[in-house]
Write a structure and sequence with these properties.
Distance between the termini of chain A: 38 Å
Strand order of the largest sheet of chain A: 6-5-4-3-7
Oligomer: homodimer
Number of strands of chain A: 7
CATH topology of one domain in chain A: SH3 type barrels
Structural class of chain A: alpha+beta
Number of helices of chain A: 8
CATH superfamily of one domain in chain A: Ferrous iron transport protein A (FeoA)
CATH class of one domain in chain A: Mainly Beta
Order of helices and strands of chain A: HHHEEHHHEHEEEHE
CATH architecture of one domain in chain A: Roll
Chain lengths: ~220, ~220
DNA sequence: AAATAAAATTAGGTTTGACTAATTTTATTT
DNA sequence: AAATAAAATTAGTCAAACCTAATTTTATTT
């Protein structure tokens, strides 16, 4: 029963863990370059930190297989993600922020650690399952609902869906969505796919017909 | 209307500002040594930071007069204190922490900045006037109620008072208070002052007769 | 396979904010 | 006033986490 005390990690270490975790959700191989791009750091700096985290047994690095979180690293990364998503719920529901403002603040709040803080916050918020962007919130034991994975762009023309989550959480994208009156739970019908560039003609909540890009459709997750 | 963006300060800078502010409430002259002791740093390090903060015009240092916050430094220090005390209210009232657990967590939360975060939190908490230790919470404009300043030890024997605040916020002191059933608002009657060592015989909420030290009495503020 | 491009790594440098040790200044005793 | 003690300061060092530039390794083209 020897859980590592996450408080012992530096801000940078936590950010690396979180980034590696996030990259692991998506692609296959996690390379130093990918981490560097994701963090906005120089690859040389990433190599340094890979060495450091490897020594701490939080990751394993093999040139062939790329970077992988160890069991301990995964546990700690998930805890950081848990804190991030819980704070996002707090900021939106309790403090009245809009969903395009909460990410950056949660990036700071997620690093605050204390034995019981996340659990108390979780309870205070009523044990939410998903954060305001539709991402599942890990439970205290590390378990979490499966993330949504089907995109709007992958739907076939004619069918209708409900927005479950967004992949991109940048304020640029979220503000665009707000302008289109799209949020979590919004019903969207895919009217037509333009074969030329995969643009999507959609109907939002049964109203306006709007055309959006493939990139847009790739960043909307549906259920 | 050019308010400095406090986000631009490092963690260390903020901690120095806050410490200098706190020392300014108490004593007269603020020396490098006093700051060093308060922060647990080496005086040599403090001298470095005094230079840095002076260059940024947040403090003024004169060997004769010691360290003084400038108008800008004071404003920023008060904002940090505001955030600290608001988070303490949140942790106690919303998350159910005890008053001996909240200080350290608030020490971390206070550094998180965002244009509207403190104000939203303030509103969410119902614009509290005092934090759980009885310290006044600065308003958004920097104004705050006058801190309590009369100590239990300064009362004359026979008189009764109500606990308004505590000076020492260490968990050692706060846990001792909890054991004695003393909290903010508790009624205390000073039965007798022992002239030998200034110990105080008190009656708590009209019940037990207990003897406490002068140091104890110095750290209880009454109204 | 050789040439080229991309990725990874090494070597060395920078900044922040600490430190220790030595020195200078200021204050307090005798 | 001289001696001593305390405080302040300077000088130089260190670790963390970043950087650039150069080199090596790996992958991709031709």
């Amino acid at each position: 029963m020897y859980n590592r005390i996450v408080d012992m990690y530096t801000l940078s270490e936590e950010n690396y863990l979180k980034t590696i975790y996030r990259l692991a959700q998506a692609d296959g191989k996690i390379t130093p370059t990918a981490i560097a791009e994701s963090l906005g750091n120089n690859p040389a700096s990433v190599v340094d930190m890979i060495r450091k985290l490897s020594e701490k047994q939080l990751i394993e690095y093999d040139k062939k297989k790329g970077v992988k979180l160890t069991a301990q690293g995964l546990k700690d990364a998930v805890l950081i993600v848990r804190r991030h998503r819980l704070w996002e719920v707090f900021l939106l529901e309790k403090l009245g922020y809009h969903w395009d403002e909460i990410h950056d603040i949660a990036e700071e709040l997620e690093h605050i650690n204390n034995d019981t803080l996340a659990d108390r916050l979780d309870k205070f918020l009523g044990f939410p399952e998903y954060d305001p962007h539709g991402d599942p919130i890990p439970k205290a034991n590390g378990k979490m609902a499966k993330p949504y994975s089907v995109t709007l762009a992958a739907m076939k023309a004619g069918s209708t869906c409900e927005v479950a989550a967004v992949r991109d959480t940048s304020s640029a994208f979220l503000q665009y969505l707000a302008k289109l009156n799209i949020g979590i739970g919004t019903k969207i019908q895919l009217i037509e796919k333009i074969s030329f560039d995969n643009s999507l003609v959609i109907s939002i909540n049964g109203k306006e017909h709007t055309t959006v890009s493939q990139k847009f459709g790739d960043n909307i997750l549906i259920e």
